[in-house]
Amino acid sequence: MKENFSKVTNALNELDEDREHILKISREIIRDCSVAIKTIHRQELNEYQKRIKNIEESLKNLKALVNKNPGYFYKYLKTPEQEYAEAIILHSITTEQDIPTHLSLNIDPLHYVLGFGDVIGELRRFILDMIRESNIEGINKILEKMDEIYSHLFSLDYPSGLTKDLRHKTDNARKLLEKTRGDISLSVQMNTLSKLLKEKNKET
């Protein structure tokens, strides 16, 4: 029996070491994704590309560890892949490029759509920056993408046991979309009022 438990201990020690390594890489990926998203908002696209390369290399290392014991470790891919998808999708939309599929990104399809759920909030932030800079021209394009994303998310009507927190993210996306529409309407009204006041001042 002692020998049996010794073998179990060795196996669990190895699992524990791999888990600690997985958590470390996962935290690094999440942090790098956050920085990558910030570079998109700042339009530092060269820095974005560097970050994405680092993230993709880290994801390879993470998956290699996860694949050693996927039954134990697969759940740890969720957040890193979700954050990676969010960064890729945001960059694709804001630079008007085709959005890669989950197959081309080599990530789980559920993690991919959860990334879409999160990108709504970043697109709202993008629109608010446009409003502050009085850049009205590109707002409708971004709003249309937000609306399209929400429609596709809403169409994924599967049990929550399968989709996890997708329904919650979809509900939150709807609220953010409605709030953003309200902000845009208010901005348009303020711009119209400002133009009318300027015209009136010119007449007087």
TL;DR?
This protein has helices spanning 2-41, 45-66, 70-73, 78-94, 102-105, 109-132, 139-155, 160-163, 166-203.
Task: Note down, in words, how this protein is organized.
By secondary structure, the protein is mainly alpha-helical. It has nine helices and no strands. Helix 4 crosses helix 6 and helix 7 runs antiparallel to helix 9 (166-203).
Strand content: under 5%
Taking all Cα atoms into account, the compactness measure Rg is 22 Å
Share of residues in helices: over 70%
* Span of the ends, CA to CA: 99 Å
Order of helices and strands: HHHHHHHHH
CATH class of the largest domain: Mainly Alpha
Question: Which architecture of the largest domain per CATH?
Answer: Up-down Bundle
CATH T-level fold name of the largest domain: Methane Monooxygenase Hydroxylase, Chain G, domain 1
Supply the number of structural domains.
2
Structural class: mainly alpha
How confident is the prediction overall: mean pLDDT? 90
What is the tally of beta strands? 0
Q: How would the global form be characterised?
A: elongated
- What composes the largest sheet? none
Number of helices: 9
Q: Any low-confidence stretches, pLDDT <50, length ≥5?
A: none
